[in-house]
Amino acid sequence: MELLSGFAVLLGGPGSGKGTQCLKIAETFGFKHIGAGDLLRKEMYSGSENGAMIQKLMTEGGIAPSEVTVKLIKKAIESAESCKFLIDGFPRSEENRMVYERIIGAEPNFVLFFDCPEEVMVKRVLSRNEGRVDDNEHTVKERLKVYKAITLPVVNHYAKKGKLYKVDGTGTQEEIFERVQPVFTSLRESQKGPMLSADPYTPSHYPAYDLLHLILSECSIPELEFDYIRIHAM
Ligand SMILES: Nc1ncnc2c1ncn2[C@@H]1O[C@H](COP(=O)(O)OP(=O)(O)O)[C@@H](O)[C@H]1O
Ligand SMILES: O=c1ccn([C@@H]2O[C@H](COP(=O)(O)OP(=O)(O)O)[C@@H](O)[C@H]2O)c(=O)[nH]1
Fold first, then answer.
1. Residues 11, 114: contact at Cβ < 8 Å?
2. Nearest residue (CA) to ligand 2, atom 9
3. Is the ipTM of this complex over 0.95?
4. What pLDDT is recorded for position 189?
C-alpha cells in the first residue's frame, strides 16, 4: 500500500507543551494529530502482548522499542483520512528516527521544537493530573536525563538539516500559540518562503518550505512538481 503524505514533527522535553500546542495547531490548520505517547498508552491499556513492557519502560522513563512505536504510528497514518500529519513527541532517539525512515520511507518536512527550562517542564508535568504512570518526581527526573542524552541529538540532527524551527515554550498556552501560529499561517498563505527572525536553530528561509507549503495546502498535488513522500508497506 502506498499513501501520499507529508508531515511535521513537534519535539520538546516532557511538559514543554507539545500535546497542548499540537491540538491547537491541528484544529486551526487541519492536521491529523498523532501523539506517539498517546498511541503507546492506548496500546498499554489494550491488553496487548506489549502492554506490560510499555508500562514498565514508561514508569522508568525509558523509550519504547522503535519497531513498536513506528508500527503504531504507521497504523494511525494509514487509518486517517487526512494527508497532513502532525507527529507529536517522536522521534525520541536517533534510532527511532532511522527506523521510522526505513519503515515509513519519509523524513519530516518541518520540525517545531519547544524550548523550555527544566524547572518549568517539571512543574507542568507534576501538575498534569491525568493519572499517568510517569508524571511523578522520580520518573520525570529520569525522563529529563533520557531527553538530554537521547532526544536532543535528534533535535540537533534536524537543526543541521535546516528543518528545525525553535519556539520559546514559556508563557501561557495562548502566548506560545501566538508564536507558533504565524509560522503556519505564513507558510499556508505565502507563495514564497517566510523570512523569520534570526535564531540559532532557525534558518532565515526554510529549505523545506516548498514541501511544507504543499502539506499545508490541500492535498491535490499531481500537477505540481514535488517529490511525493511515499509510505511503504512494512
Ligand atoms: N503554557 C503553559 N502554561 C502552563 N501549563 C501548560 C502550558 N502548556 C501546557 N500546560 C500544561 O502542562 C502540562 C504538560 O503539557 P503537555 O502539552 O501535556 O506537554 P507535553 O506533551 O510536552 O508533555 C499539561 O497539564 C498542560 O495542560
Ligand atoms: O516515541 C515515543 C513517545 C513516547 N514514549 C514513551 O512515552 C512516555 C510519554 O511520552 P509522551 O510524549 O506522552 O509525554 P511527554 O513527553 O509529552 O510528556 C515517554 O517518556 C516514553 O516512555 C516512547 O517510548 N516513545
1. yes
2. 37
3. yes
4. 63
